[in-house]
Design goal:
- The protein is of the alpha+beta class.
- It has one domain.
- About 20% of the residues lie in helices and about 20% in strands.
- It has helices at about 25-40, 90-95, 110; strands at about 10, 15-25, 45, 80.
- Strand 1 and strand 2 (about 15-25) form a beta hairpin.
Length: about 130
């Protein structure tokens, strides 16, 4: 059970993992996995569970039921976790614990893939002017 929404963990492929993100696209997984592995984490990614199907509509007596609609294709999303179940994404980013392959600190903009490269920012508590 998670302490709060920012610290989730569950079992993925039989391994207790700290959840990094859920419903991740294959492109996002291709970004996160190498970044986390570079920082010494063992990454576990499993396909996200399919959404629950709606119950069939009720049919009145004497009416024939319409054929059920075909099931939607399963989403191609993943749940990404690391084997360090104490991992917390928020703490890792704002605690400046993750590095890029170039040795720069991972910023929030880089993590969210809003910037192609991470630009080290001076933390607010070290800013002098």
């Amino acid at each position: 059970m998670a302490i709060n929404k920012n610290h989730e963990f569950e079992e993925l492929d039989g391994v207790k993992c700290g959840i990094v993100e859920k419903n991740v696209s294959p492109e996002r997984l291709a970004f996160l996995k190498p970044l986390l592995e570079l920082n010494g984490f063992t990454v576990v990614a499993v396909p996200s569970p399919a959404p629950k199907a709606a119950p069939p509509p009720k049919v009145a007596e004497g009416e024939t039921a319409p054929p059920p609609p075909p099931p939607p294709p399963p989403p191609s999303t993943f749940t990404v976790g690391v084997t360090d179940y104490t991992f917390n994404t928020t703490n890792a980013i704002f605690g400046r614990m993750l590095k890029t392959k170039n040795g720069h600190v991972v910023t929030q903009a880089y993590w969210l893939q809003k910037e192609a490269e991470s630009h080290d920012e001076v933390p607010y508590y070290e800013f002098n002017g």
